Description:
heterodimer, A: 316 residues, extended, B: 284 residues, alpha/beta, 6-stranded mixed beta sheet, 4-stranded antiparallel beta sheet, 11 helices, 35% helix, globular
Amino acid sequence: xxxxxxxxxxxxxxxxxxxxxxxxxxxxxxxxxxxxxxxxxxxxxxxxxxxxxxxxxxxxxxxxxxxxxxxxxxxxxxxxxxxxxxxxxxxxxxxxxxxxxxxxxxxxxxxxxxxxxxxxxxxxxxxxxxxxxxxxxxxxxxxxxxxxxxxxxxxxxxxxxxxxxxxxxxxxxxxxxxxxxxxxxxxxxxxxxxxxxxxxxxxxxxxxxxxxxxxxxxxxxxxxxxxxxxxxxxxxxxxxxxxxxxxxxxxxxxxxxxxxxxxxxxxxxxxxxxxxxxxxxxxxxxxxxxxxxxxxxxxxxxxxxxxxxxxxxxxx
Amino acid sequence: xxxxxxxxxxxxxxxxxxxxxxxxxxxxxxxxxxxxxxxxxxxxxxxxxxxxxxxxxxxxxxxxxxxxxxxxxxxxxxxxxxxxxxxxxxxxxxxxxxxxxxxxxxxxxxxxxxxxxxxxxxxxxxxxxxxxxxxxxxxxxxxxxxxxxxxxxxxxxxxxxxxxxxxxxxxxxxxxxxxxxxxxxxxxxxxxxxxxxxxxxxxxxxxxxxxxxxxxxxxxxxxxxxxxxxxxxxxxxxxxxxxxxxxxxxxxxxxxxxxxxxxxxxxxxxxxxxxxxxxxxxxx
Lengths: 316, 284
């Protein structure tokens, strides 16, 4: 019944392992972008699980209600944005570190942010350190344009220099970014994403928006897994890797499939919602009231913000 | 349009085709009385899920009609209160794919979704959520996101999300798909208990063993999407020709010592051995 070509080739099997050319280790160049992208997505999902674990660890911020944490973060973010003195920004960042330690957030994650964020913000703000953007006292010489130099219609100075005023602005920008990112990090690392989303409602974010974002977050994971399965199914039947063009074609058809699945899923989810009485209006369970500890946390954030703004002379 | 009748559902010559002309159901007639335990039996794509969707007012008959609680199920009826709310409160639908059904951020939100849609007071919603978490042993999963649950856990949460609405009718679409034997048994016991409490259950499945345990009445759909038998489960399971014809069992050849025989075969149906070597065994 079974055609001859389907029978296992015992002779061929015997040669596997004895033939070194079968395990050459040669890798095609530029053909592994799909695998790389998908393993990146898989890492993101794994990160989600790690975040979930950190959010349920016993720590100071984990005990605070998500709404209080969001409110406290919002107050401190405003203070960080308005604070003019670098010392104020260092104080807020220092507070974040203390809270991170008390909440058992792995300092590795903080360090990772501190190493990457200043670098990117520095690239953005660097031109403002030059006398072309911020005139002031020169501390370093960069380029000599000579008299009468122009960039299009704009006249250029004789010398391009780094100014002390420009350096101050750049340093303050980097510190501000660092303080803001640290604030967001300690809040998100100690709160489950789902709880954080539902708490947005108490800050006045429309219910429908919260529901849509929550559903997007929920089904993104499912679709990433579908994409991963799709790739694994192909990989398990791939004997000879195709050309980059063939891989690109496969990616395009995979995207089409995922898009189709997305639409199908959307219809089915809507049916499931209708089946349980959904009539177009999002309804949620009301949260219990804030406890004294939660209110104290918000008060503490407000106090720190007030002190930071007073020190920066915002109210003068 | 209300019609006087004691039945929960009356399906009269209902037909439905999907866009593109894909036939879902042809000329189906069926009556479901209060407290019945019905299994919709049929091969893949025979129309079981389509029939369940018609009964839940998610799709609507294009020919014939479907009446629920004496009211004809039309798009207008299914979307207009007070009937729509009454109907959604009475009928719960367990989808085959639990991921479709679990769309809320957490297990707690999922169970609360239905009662909230029915505008129940917050305290009552909370009480129902607590009851469901306890009955289905889901307390430890309360704050978990659905995508982090196992297949069995998802099915339990999906069931809890239906039961929290307090339905009198449960429509179950292939409820054992993807469940391990222990989870299947737990589901079976729960559904049996619910039926004992007075719920009407209609279960679509092609698992004859599961069907025999979960239902007393069988409605058999053919591969031509028609209802070909509506009879007590025992009678249907004894009709091997019918089960072969609708592709619920297959012919199976095997050897007994010196002779080989062929008989209809399903892993859950008994068959007898004996007779002359080489000849058909009794009961085949």
